[in-house]
Amino acid sequence: xxxxxxxxxxxxxxxxxxxxxxxxxxxxxxxxxxxxxxxxxxxxxxxxxxxxxxxxxxxxxxxxxxxxxxxxxxxxxxxxxxxxxxxxxxxxxxxxxxxxxxxxxxxxxxxxxxxxxxxxxxxxxxxxxxxxxxxxxxxxxxxxxxxxxxxxxxxxxxxxxxxxxxxxxxxxxxxxxxxxxxxxxxxxxxxxxxxxxxxxxxxxxxxxxxxxxxxxxxxxxxxxxxxxxxxxxxxxxxxxxxxxxxxxxxxxxxxxxxxxxxxxxxxxxxxxxxxxxxxxxxxxxxxxxxxxxxxxxxxxxxxxxxxxxxxxxxxxxxxxxxxxxxxxxxxxxxxxxxxxxxxxxxxxxxxxxxxxxxxxxxxxxxxxxxxxxxxxxxxxxxxxxxxxxxxxxxxxxxxxxxxxxxxxxxxxxxxxxxxxxxxxxx
Length: 426
Prior knowledge:
Layout: H1 2-16, E1 41-42, E2 49-57, E3 63-73, E4 76-87, E5 93-101, E6 105-113, E7 116-123, E8 126-132, E9 140-142, E10 150-155, E11 161-169, E12 172-180, E13 188-191, E14 202-206, E15 220-226, E16 229-235, E17 242-247, E18 251-259, E19 262-269, E20 274-280, E21 287-292, E22 297-298, E23 305-307, E24 312-322, E25 329-339, H2 346-352, E26 368-369, E27 373-377, E28 380-389, E29 407-416, H3 417-421
Antiparallel strand pairs: 1-29, 2-3, 3-4, 4-5, 6-7, 7-8, 8-9, 10-11, 11-12, 12-13, 14-15, 15-16, 16-17, 18-19, 19-20, 20-21, 22-24, 23-24, 24-25, 26-28, 27-28, 28-29
């Protein structure tokens, strides 16, 4: 009887004692359960590390994604492959391996319109192009109009392709803009409207025909980093270009988006935990704001999401949270929001970063994250992201390899902007 009483006392103590935890979970607001987003979908079936993730939305809102996947050991990639996948105009999913080989793999970019899709990838320091004219069913390789090491792409409403190509000469990068003379002609009109720059950071923005408040903005804008700021080339037709410069800081990454009738540039400051915001109608001067970020936020330049119904402006980024006592971290997506009239109020953004929202969790405890890729069409935002982690079976790897072998989990989801903007609004 005494042993039975002792057993009951021990069992009662187990129920009353708080459970010990070895992981600190991210803060989640009570409204996280009502976040409106499609079930996150895993991209790809191959194993290895994912690099250069890029996404485009066509006029129907279908997503098309390109990325490079490779085996990686101690940061050396091998057995690389360029993958493109998406949804055809008929609603059928496709996945194609456009290239495979051993050269070093760089970034990719993709654009889609009216069944035409163009993919660019930097392979062995050279840009190569592929095209589909049947919404992803069949593909062919294109010849680049100029030799380049970095590319950005767009397709104009009349079907003409526009390529922004960076060519390196010594320590300088020259931007060459090539525009098709007619849709699908493969004949190009070439322009170089900006001076050479030491920055290889370039991004392209297109006006969203669904957002009527963007009608006063140019149909296409290209931004390139420069020492101490950003330089822009904008065009009403893809053939004539006007240039501007913005004084801020030397950028590490750039993103362009529209908030109301203003173009907004978000860029990271090279070598600092700082984001810069610059906004203008392009006919007025630029308003520039410096935003400092806490150590938990991985500084990233992403396009802003704007909900005109509530006039909320949102930024998706990545946060790192302590995972285990010995210092590893978990990386997850976070969302910060401010009212449109507080776009250039640094304190409004900095207050948001204290309690980030983290409703979109990935399956693995990631040690790092390459960052979210955000594209916007109308009132939806398509978000794709990559998390890197040590494989669960790493203990079975030779001891000399442990910690040097990583894998990636890439996922994507579509988010309704109005639902995001109204979360937690008093």
